[in-house]
Please model this.
Amino acid sequence: MPQDAFTLRLNARELNATLAGGKINKINQPEREEITFLIYTGKQVLKLALNVNASDCGVYFSDAVKENPAVAPGFCMLLRKHLTNAELKEVSLVGFERILAFRFFCVSDFSSTEKILYAEIMGKYSNLILTENGVITGALKTTAIGENCKRLIFPGAKYEFPEPQDKVDPTDYPALFSLLKDARQENLDEFLFKHVRGIAPVTAENIVKWYGGEGVFAKHVYDYLFSNEITACVNDRDFFARWEDGATLFPTLSAAQAYFYGRKGREKEIAAMKRKLSSAVNSAIKKQEKRLAQILQKRHDCKDAELNRISGELLTANLWKIEKGSRGCELENFYGGGTVKITLDPTKTPSENAQSYFKKYRKEKRTLEALAPQEEETKREISYLRSLSAAAEFAKDKEDLTALEEELIAAGILKETNGKKKKEKVVSFRSFEKDGFRILAGRNNMENDKLVRSARPDDLWLHAKAYHSCHVVVKTEGKPVPDEVLLFAAGICAQYSDGKGDKVPVDYCEVRFVKKPPKSKPGSVVYTDYKTVTVAPLS
Model:
C-alpha cells in the first residue's frame, strides 16, 4: 500500500481540515498496535484510528466496531491521562517524511501545555510516540536502555526523528531539478524511487505514467507531489490518493483507507477462522484414522481365526494318530484337500492342543465380531469429518464459517467459547434464482438436514455423486424443472463440493426419494430413483 510521504501529506490535510479544533472525548486500544480517538468536532463525533501494525499501518476515520479489553493497556492509560479533553490544534506532516504530528493543547487545573503525538507510519518500524517539549512522555513501542539501537525510545529520552534516507528532499526544488535534469527516459520510475525521498514505487510509477514528455520533468514531479488534488480510490490490491484505472472512487482518502483496511481485516479474519476450523477438523480426522489403523491391525492379527478352527477340528478327528510330546504334525485337510501342518505344544496332550486351537479361534472370532461395527462406525466418522473439511475449504464468507463453527461445536469437535449455549439462529441457506425458480443450498451438514426436512416431496434434490458436497434443493412449486435450471442447480452443487476437475457428476431426484437413516451423522442420506448429470462447477 502507498503509505508514503506523498499520500500522508494529503491525508494530513484532510484530517486537519476536519479535526482541527476538535476535543478528545475518549481513547481506546482495541488491538495491540491500534489506538482509537473519539473526537468531537463541534458538529459530530468521529472515530480516528491510528494503526501501527506492520501490514495495516495508517491513520483514518473508522466505523469498525471492535471489542476493547477489560483492562486498558499501559500506553492507552497514558494517553487517557494526558490527552482526554485536550484540543487537537493541528495535524501536519513532518517535513516530507512518513510522520504525522498531532499537536494538542492540554489544560489541567494547574497548567496548560502543548503535547505532540507523532504517528510514524513506516511499515514494521511504525510507532506512536507522545512528547512534551521535545521529551518522550511515552510510546506504544519502546526500546530498552541497554538495547543496541540508533534511536532511544523510552520515557524521559529526547525525541529524535528517524535518520533521513540518503535521497533528495523533493521540497528542495533546486536539488530536485539538479537530480532530474539529466535523468534517462528508461526506468524513470525506478530512478525516482531510489533517489527521491518520501515516495513509494507505485507513486513513482504514476508520476512517470502521467508525464507526457513535455516541459521540465523536475517541475512535473514537484507539481505532482505537492498538488492538493485528491481522487481517492481502491482497487483489488491497494488504495490510492490519485486516480487508478479500474479502481473504485471514494469521497475522501480516509474513506478509501477505511474501506481498504476493513476489507483486508475481514479477509484476514476469514483466513484465520478457516485455519482454526480446518485445524480442528484435521486433528479429529487424524485421531479417527489412527483409531482405524489400530482396528485394521487387530483384524490383521486375527486373520488365522479360521485356520485355528480347522486345526482344532483336524486334531480332534485324528487324536489316535498323534503321539504325546510331538512338536507338530501334518494332517489331511478334509475341508479343502491337501494337508495342513500344525504346530503342537509338546507339554500338552493332543486333546489339550486341539482345545488350545479352539480357544484361540473363539477369542479371535469374538474380536472380529467386536471390530466389525467399530470399523464401520470409524469409517462413517471419517467420512463425516471429511465432509466438514470440504465445507471449510469451499466456505466463502464469515457466515459460512460461523455456520460450520456451530456444527463443530454441536459435534464436540470445538468447545463453546463463552461457556453458554447460543440461541438457535434462523437458518439462512444460500439462495439463488434461475428463470423464476428458487434454489437453496445448505452451508454445512446440519443445514443440509434442515433443508431436506423443510423441502416439499416434489421439490428437486441434488448432491455431487461420490463426493462431499452441499445439498441443493430446487423449489418446484409443482412445476416441471427446465434443463437450464437443472444444470444451473447442478453447477451450484459442483461448486460447493470437493470434486476436482472441469466436470463433476451430480445425482438428482425428487425429495420424496431422499431418506435419512436412523442415528446417522448430520448430512447423511440415502436416495433412490435418481439420475445423474455431469456439469462444470458454477463460476
User: Anything to note?
Assistant: The CA atoms of residues 390 and 498 lie 6 Å apart. The first strand starts at residue 23 and ends at 31. The chain is about 35% helix and 20% strand.
